[in-house]
Amino acid sequence: MSAPVITDNKKKIKRGFFAVVTGRTFLIVLLLLIQLGLLVWGFERLGEYIHLGSAFASALMLIYIMNTDSDPTVKLTWSFIIALVPVLGIPLYFYIKLDLGHRAVQKAISRQIRETAAYFPLHPEEDRDVTKKLRATLPEAASISHYLTSTAGFPPYERSEVTYFPVGERKFEAMLRDLESAESFIFMEYFILSPGRMWDAILDILKRKVQAGVEVRFMYDGTCAFGDLPYSYPKELEALGIRCKMFAPVRPLVSTHYNNRDHRKILVVDGKVAYTGGVNIGDEYINEKPRFGHWKDTAIRVRGEAVRSFTLMFLQMWNANERAAGCCYDRYLPAPEDIALDAPGAVIPYGDSPMDRERVGETVYLHLINTARDYVWIMTPYLILDGETVSALTIAAKRGVDVRLILPHIPDKKYAFWLAKSHYRELVNAGVKLYEYTPGFVHAKVFLVDGRMGTVGTVNLDYRSLYHHFECGALLIDTPCLADIRADFEDTLEKSHRVTREDIDHEKFHVKFFGGLLKIVAPLM
């Protein structure tokens, strides 16, 4: 059985239709029309009373919002919307904040986190010893290790090896070899699953492995049903013996759950090898299907004890809607002596969930920026920043840190490109060095600090990744692959154009205008 093929035109039509009907745009337009109708009727009948009531409701809402514990930029955005269009803004605010449909999911995932908490540490005493050693050799690593262990629940692992892939093609080659070697189980969790050469090659292996008795589970995000795959695709894979789930199928206006997508990319083979990074399952990620010039992406392959955390992160999501799931964890966690490797450095895989108030991904990023001494180099596809991240980047540059960001030159989304450029002037004026990858699009999410710490994962520098999505990554401390990451940065910088003040001054008017306009509502995008 081959993966279904849908024509590009049909895909575009379906994506467009579902994006409008299930997105906030549909709700905003609907509420705006209601508001216009109420205003016309109200001013004809009640006039002054409607105006006073609207002003009073807006004032109360502004006081309420200012006293919430939201991010200041988010508060500012909501305040602007409610002051400008209260009849639209107030219902929209409560619709989103009520999180209809999230409560059951939140309880299920919280239950899974509690059930798996005891499984993450291999050796609790050794975990504390790792942090102690880091305090003596690299205090800034020790503090973030302490946070990830004690607050977020993700311990450090020493006996693990990491391989860095500077392009998706190399990750694809390696993952095929690892899939072929599977003997017990294969877990795959991806944001995008798109038909094509990449998926056909993977699916061929998965079918053969199922026939050989290997357990295969595949989970992908519900947005794939917009155009990449038929809604019934999980049933098609189940018929092949592949256990499959679509995370959060999108149902128009039923809930705000569509806003919290599973953006993670995780592959685990036999509990001994794991992958993460920016590379989804789709031909553009391996440059088999050009879309925005050359697709620059990255990934890592982890062997050893650190694979344990990726296995458990997958099972947390998979088991969220399973009954009696807690009994099955041990069988997927190999004994430490079977997976430990003699490898230098420490690895801390971590996950991030929008179901709690702990922004793990942003905390890791801010810590790396704030503790950098010599340099912090970043690759990211998007630059839609809150005030805290802007301050961290500009202050780091002002205190003499070499701050460099590599961004796309050919964007996948124009609105995101315009928003990114709205930050350019402030960052460049502070001494931050911005580069655009001239051959095409950067989809990598990589940080490198002083050659001693770094992270590779799925977390973009935008509100969706930092606030709304399920994400994951791995913090790397004194691992040999950090040298490979630096070499990749240097190679990518050679292919990139440094953005100058003159470039910013001569930017097209519509880019400046729409970038500034969209910046007002960036936290809601």
Write a brief caption for the model.
With 525 residues, the chain is of the alpha/beta class. It is 47% helix and 17% strand. Helix 1 crosses helix 2, helix 3 (48-66) packs antiparallel against helix 4 and helix 4 packs antiparallel against helix 5 (86-97).
- The tally of strands reads 17
Into how many domains do the coordinates divide?
3
Mean model confidence by pLDDT: 86
Classify the helix fraction into a percent range: 40-55%
What is the CATH architecture term of the largest domain? 2-Layer Sandwich
Q: Rg from C-alpha positions?
A: 24 Å
Strand order of the largest sheet: 9-16-15-14-10-11-12-17
- Globally, the shape reads globular
CATH superfamily of the largest domain: Endonuclease Chain A
* Poorly predicted tracts of residues: 1-7
Question: Strand fraction band?
Answer: 15-25%
Q: How many alpha or pi helices?
A: 21
In the CATH hierarchy, the third-tier topology of the largest domain is known as Endonuclease, Chain A
Q: What is the terminal-to-terminal distance?
A: 38 Å
Largest sheet: 8 strands, mixed
> What structural class results from the helix and strand content?
alpha/beta
CATH class of the largest domain: Alpha Beta
